Amino acid sequence: MGLVIIFGLVTLLAAIGAFTALKNKNLLGAFWGIASFAVFGWFTVMTVIHSGFPTGTH
């Protein structure tokens, strides 16, 4: 279940990196940021669908 959290954090960081690269007109960095966002975002969605959202222990 921790995999969902890690994939989600990487997806958020890739989105931030892609936005920063676009703002700085760094096209290669923006390409890799958007590609990372797409791949890890897909992994996040598929992991949530397959394994479910992590719940806290009570």
TrEMBL record:
Q: Is the keyword Transmembrane in the record?
A: yes
Transmembrane ranges? 27-49
User: Which InterPro entries does the UniProt entry name for this protein?
Assistant: DUF2759
Q: Which domain of life is it from?
A: Bacteria
Q: Which keywords accompany this UniProt record?
A: Membrane, Transmembrane, Transmembrane helix
Q: What is this protein called?
A: DUF2759 domain-containing protein
